[in-house]
Design goal:
Blueprint (H helix, E strand, L loop, with lengths): L1 H18 L4 H41 L6 H11 L1 H12 L4
């Protein structure tokens, strides 16, 4: 019985060594995924902050300064492009397009 457990353990150890053998390609893939994730999070964080600032500016224009823009389309453009999108909408309102 003990011999069977010992043989099974040896087979498992050999299989694990073959499976987890040092492979530099796996390490490169892991590093690439980590770097891409960090870059994606940094970019996404900037986009979220830009969108929040744009929405706050839109609400300020709409409720405090009483500048009435078409709310839904302006909200969508502001969420995507931030304050720059809101500025474009104001220019379009100035020229009577919106």
């Amino acid at each position: 019985m003990i011999d069977l457990i010992f043989i099974t353990t040896e087979i498992a150890n050999e299989t694990a060594k073959k499976t987890f053998e040092f492979n530099p390609i796996i390490l490169l893939y892991a590093l690439a995924l980590i770097i891409l994730t960090v870059i994606f999070i940094k970019i996404l964080q900037n986009v979220i902050v830009n969108s929040i600032i744009g929405v706050v500016a839109l609400l300020f224009l709409y409720y405090v300064l009483n500048i009435k823009l078409p709310f839904v389309i302006t909200l969508i453009i502001t969420v995507i492009f931030g304050p720059a999108g809101l500025g474009v909408m104001l220019v379009l309102k100035f020229f009577g397009i919106v």
